[in-house]
Amino acid sequence: MKAIYEAIFALRNGKPTIIRAVGFYNPVISEQRKRNMEIECTQCWETFNTAIQQAADEFNIPFVSVYDAFNGINHDEDPKEKGYIGGDGVHTSELGGQVIADILSEAGYEPVEP
Predict the structure, then answer these.
(1) Which residue, of 1, 17, 80, 89, has the fewest CB within 10 Å?
(2) What is the predicted pLDDT for the residue at 113?
(3) What is the DSSP letter of 15?
């Protein structure tokens, strides 16, 4: 992530840049629960999302936790039950897409200076 941010800012060459980082949701928590793998998989998702947030923080990039929005603050909620996951079982539904759009909008649109 850091290398990606460095490349973006290098390409922008000091110009105002609007960028936001988002955490990833876990669409398959119910499957992990059925297989008694929820605890281990949740630890992986939390580590992954923490790494995304830490990289964003280093570059002063606002971070929004789609993971918290979709899986709850304890990361134990199934986003499928909320209607956030589409028919393929992985990607967002229209409602899920709107949730992401809303939290990104709440993060604002001020340019980032690394």
Answers:
(1) 89
(2) 83
(3) S
